[in-house]
Design a protein that fits this description.
Helices cover 41% and strands 16% of the residues. It is built from 19 helices and 19 strands. Helix 15 links the parallel strand 15 and strand 16. The protein is globular, with a radius of gyration of 25 Å. The protein starts with a strand and ends with a helix. The chain binds thiamine diphosphate and iron/sulfur cluster.
Length: 539
């Protein structure tokens, strides 16, 4: 059968299309972005009138997907792990409402923080919500699990969480597709009050969620994604979750592990299988990406003195991404570790593109702030966070999306002068607008710079929901018109821009400055696609 060479992210997207998805809503975030991008570009998705859309943030995405499920259709939302924090209110409550049409939430974790603020483990959110969870070990499984996830969700009337990690999301392998299934017809929830979480309903729904846990465990015990692979040598038993299973078998030439292995791909954990491994083997090694979730639960409910190894006892490092070498070391294997990489591929620190508009915003801001001491610029998350690096050294904080304006407000309210917030256009609509409203309500003396490069550059140039609307939004929220300014962040206007910022730093209320110039990368990609279009028309 023909195989498609797909990234893990693309395999998930293709499987969702093939499984009869009707709507996907997401906010970009590495390493999840390519799932929604694939659906947006898919001819099959367009022909099937599948709705695919970027949203303002992960919470609005989660709620839109829940709306799709409400009417009986199959819905999906994808985000990076920290996005699940933003979506958490809707996500946790969706386990109480349950699903009508199949609902899949994909959360992509980034162990080692290749492009993230933390390396939290989304499986804890799945446990917290008490939802069934899937964790693929390779691209084919990512495809098969996604296809199955919608059936699973409809079988139990419950959303399903899929947890993936960077390496799986961004590596490619051949994937065999299943037959395409038609989209669901419109079908309202059978239970009239299911989605009305008034206390009386919520209590009933919560009891039903608790009552369903045993059936989720039974489903895990019988799942083809959880396998007990027996072997002769019982001196060690290995539990390998998700992609860690791949790292394990890569250590053996014929992929045959001499010890019994419990491969985990579906949660809640298959308790009987775990008990069997624990009873049959002298000691247990747990290999899992992220936090020691399985290791902790094993220590918690099965510990009768047998040695349990993993991230907690130091057999595997407590933090950071796994790889076959780390797994091999935990198994006491010796092997060729490879050479030092050539300088051509050595890691280089990230930097703003030459000529990036953010450079000129920071040059002007730095000069305007010269007479003040350090510690006054609260930044946010985007390409402009690179303003923390030399030669700019222009920002003092970066915590989570939206934290720039709110932190500046708190600092300004309690005595910092001047307090500056720097935020990108996409981050502003993600979670900056509500903070700006707070600042306006309290008349906090903050100078907010919304760096408008007309795109979501950091994650690859998705459309920004703020496009063409920033001044109107700020005015609508209540910023005084005379304190909303647009500037052109370019060397030619440096003195003018600097003077404008200096002036607003003196203002004892909320002012907004919008440096506006398109990201160079989106300009280049637009020109490339226009040229390709012209070439195509001439052929
Ligand atoms: C909660 C959360 N969601 C998504 C991301 C991924 N992410 C990092 S920055 C960013 C947006 C950047 O766009 P913008 O604010 O316009 O700045 P630009 O990169 O264009 O300068 C996104 C989506 C994240 N870090 N946290
Ligand atoms: S991608 Fe765009 S916004 Fe990001 S550094 Fe390059 S030019 Fe600047």
């Amino acid at each position: 059968m023909n195989k498609l060479p797909l990234l893990g992210d693309e395999a998930i997207a293709q499987a969702a299309i093939d499984a009869g998805l009707s709507g996907i809503y997401s906010y970009p975030g590495t390493p999840s972005t390519e799932i929604t991008e694939y659906v947006l570009k898919s001819k099959e998705a367009k022909e099937g009138k599948l709705v695919a859309s970027w949203t303002s943030n992960e919470k609005t995405a989660m709620e839109a997907a829940l709306g799709v499920s409400y009417i009986g259709k199959r819905g999906m939302t994808c985000m990076k792990h920290v996005g699940l924090n933003v979506a958490a209110d809707a996500f946790i409550n969706s386990a109480i409402t349950g699903a009508n049409g199949g609902l899949l939430v994909v959360s992509a974790d980034d162990p080692s923080m290749h492009s993230s603020q933390n390396e939290q483990d989304s499986r804890f959110f799945g446990n917290f919500a008490m939802m069934p969870m899937l964790e693929p070990s390779n691209q084919q499984e990512a495809y098969d699990m996604t296809h199955y996830a919608f059936d699973l969700s409809e079988k139990f009337g419950m959303p399903v969480l899929m947890r993936i990690t960077t390496r799986l999301a961004h590596s490619r392998a051949g994937v065999v597709r299943k037959e395409m299934r038609p989209q669901n017809e419109l079908k309202m929830p059978g239970e009239a009050n299911q989605f009305i979480l008034l206390p009386a309903n919520a209590r009933r729904r919560y009891k039903s969620l608790l009552g369903s846990q045993e059936s989720y465990i039974r489903e895990s015990e019988g799942s083809t994604f959880n396998r007990y692979i027996d072997a002769e040598d019982k001196s060690l038993g290995i539990i390998a979750c998700g992609i860690a299973y791949n790292y394990l078998i890569e250590n053996f030439a014929d992929q045959k592990v001499p010890y019994p292995v419990l491969k985990i791909g579906q949660y809640p954990l298959p308790r009987t299988m775990m008990e069997k491994l624990y009873e049959e083997c002298d000691e247990i090694l747990v290999i899992e990406e992220g936090y020691p979730l399985v290791e902790e639960s094993l220590r918690g409910y099965m510990n009768n003195g047998k040695r349990i190894r993993g991230r907690l006892d130091g057999s595997i490092p407590r933090d950071g991404e796994l790889n076959p070498v780390l797994v091999g070391k935990a198994l006491g294997l010796s092997f060729f570790e490879g050479r030092e990489p050539s300088n051509n591929v050595a890691g280089r620190p990230p930097s703003l593109c030459k000529g990036c508009p953010h450079i000129y915003s920071y040059n002007a801001l730095n000069e305007a702030l010269e007479k003040y001491a350090k510690g006054r610029v609260f930044s946010d998350i985007g390409c402009y966070t690179l303003g923390a690096l030399e030669p700019f050294d222009a920002i003092n904080t970066c915590v989570d999306m939206g934290a720039s304006i709110t932190m500046a407000k708190g600092a300004a309210d309690t005595g910092l002068v001047p307090a500056v917030a720097v935020i990108g256009d996409s981050t502003f609509t993600h979670s900056g607008m509500t903070g700006l409203l707070d600042a306006i309500i309290n008349k906090s003396p903050v100078t907010v710079m919304i760096l408008d490069n007309e795109t979501t550059a950091m994650t690859g140039g998705q459309d920004s929901n703020a496009h063409g609307k920033l001044e109107d939004i700020c005015e609508g929220l209540g910023v005084e018109k005379e304190h909303i300014h647009v500037m052109n962040p370019i060397q030619k206007y440096h003195d003018e821009n600097m003077a404008l910022i200096k002036n607003e730093l003196e203002y004892k209320g909320v002012s907004v400055i919008i440096p506006r110039r398109e990201c160079l990368q989106t300009v280049a990609s637009r020109i490339r696609s226009e040229k390709a279009k012209v070439k195509q028309e001439m052929q």
